[in-house]
Structure formats: C-alpha cells, structure tokens
Amino acid sequence: MRALVLDDSKAARSFLRMILEELGFDVVEAADGAEGLERLRELGKMEIAFVDLNMPEMDGLEFIHRVRKLGNYDEMRLMTITTETSKEKVAETLAAGADEYVMKPYTREVIQEKLTLLGFDQS
Q1: How far is CA 60 from the centre of its chain?
Q2: Beta 48-51 vs 2-6: how paired, if at all?
C-alpha cells in the first residue's frame, strides 16, 4: 500500500512516515499541495493521502478540491491532519472530498483507528 504525506513541516512528515511504515505503508512525501499533485502525476495510484490544511504554495483544501475534480483518484482516501479545529473547517474539508479528519497532535493509535474506519487492514 502506498501513502502520500503532504505537510510543510519536515518533522511532521517524518513522524507520520514512521507511523505509516510501521503499519506497512510505502510512503511518499510532499511539502505542499502542488508538490503532492506532481507526485501523483509521477507515481500514479496511491491508496491514501494525509493532507495538512495549512501549507504554502497550495494549501490542503485546494489539493483536495483538485484531486477530487481529476476523477482518476476517486478510490484514493484523503485524510486531513491539521491544527484547524473549528466545526466549520471540518465541515468544509469533508464537503470538499476528504474522508477523515485528524487534529494535531495525534498518536499512532489515532492514525491506526482512522485507517481502520476507512477499511485499511493493518494485520
């Protein structure tokens, strides 16, 4: 399984990479939405993308909108991981096409639980 991790923080990407690799994912990183779209063009299918909302160049919400408009990534799950906690932001993100929403800080257990909710088997 392949996962795309989009976050402008190298430390945040590294932490999530560690968790995902322990869960059996091959991880590809990107520092913003524009780079994330480029990784998708280069590498093709990913099972899931973890998307920070607040990034330079192209933020996570714009990335989600663009991926969902492309149509060829309809099966890819999108999980936002962010410090944004308002109900309005959660609703806006889910309406844009995100499948799950995780608030920072998070733990390995939270990520694993959300992956299970999305149908990923970590056994």
Answers
A1: 9
A2: parallel
Distance CA 101, CA 91 (A): 10
Q: What predicted TM-score, i.e. pTM, was given to this entire model?
A: 0.94
Residue 119 forms part of a structural domain: no
- Domain CATH code at residue 89: 3.40.50.2300
Give the whole-angstrom CA distance, residue 123 versus residue 114. Answer: 15
Tell me the per-residue pLDDT of 29-54, one tens digit each, with 9 for 90 and over. Answer: 999 999 999 999 999 889 999 999 99
DSSP H helices in 6-76: 10-22, 33-43, 60-70
Residue 116 lies in a domain: no
Q: Could you give the number of structural domains in the chain? A: 1
Distance of alpha carbon 63 from alpha carbon 114, whole angstroms: 20
